[in-house]
From TrEMBL:
It holds the Pfam family TetR_N. PROSITE patterns: HTH_TETR_2 (PS50977). Signal peptide: none annotated. Residues 14-74 form the HTH tetR-type domain. The lineage of its organism: Bacteria, Bacillati, Actinomycetota, Actinomycetes, Mycobacteriales. Residues 37-56 bind DNA. GO terms for biological process: negative regulation of DNA-templated transcription. It comes from the Bacteria. PANTHER family: HTH-TYPE TRANSCRIPTIONAL DUAL REGULATOR CECR, HTH-TYPE TRANSCRIPTIONAL REGULATOR RUTR. The keyword DNA-binding applies. Keywords: DNA-binding, Transcription, Transcription regulation. This is TetR family transcriptional regulator. It comes from Rhodococcus opacus. InterPro entries: Homeodomain-like_sf, HTH-type_TetR-like_transc_reg, HTH_TetR, Tet_transcr_reg_TetR-rel_C_sf, TetR_C_Proteobacteria.
Amino acid sequence: MSAQTSNYHRRVAEQKRTAIVGAATALFLESGYDRTSLAKVADLAGVSKATLFKQFPTKAALFEAIVAESWNTDGTTEIHPAPGDLRKGLTSIGHGYVELLTRPGMTDLFRIVIAEVSRFPELGQTQFDLGKMPYFDSVRRYLDAEREAGAAELDDAELAATQFLGMISNYVFWPRLLLVHWSPDDNTVTRVVDEAVAMMVSRYGRDTPPGPRGR
């Protein structure tokens, strides 16, 4: 098989995967997780059941794909800035977090989980384990790196990450679950991020980093 043919088949497979994930998301929202069959997903996505089962043998695997794609940060949001400048790093993370929370599908994902978690607690666990926690841990590791670099003085990076992300999501994201037209403009979002960064720098920042610990 030539490289050109291989690339073509890969693109077709990716297109079908995107169609399947989109169809599943729409049906989970419209009919609920329990009442959505893989056959209905295949029909709405315009693919054969064999094609769907090849990529997603179970409904749980399909939901995992929705979570993974919703929280995927490859090449988009910045969560690994170099330590040494707390304000700059947090600003980058803050705007990246806004981009993540406001991307198409994120609100839908949370609505699916909230609607079904009482009957299917595994959906909440999947969202937590594959989506929220990996992202949260990346921010916590960044704050630990700033502490090691001497740019931040904190004893609990987990608490600090919770505070920072919470200040942003509480305005940018959570109202969207109840208010369908909630969409702050860019200037407001920038102000929210800047204020969250200012509070973190005031609480945890060091004006003159003394260098990594142990030196």
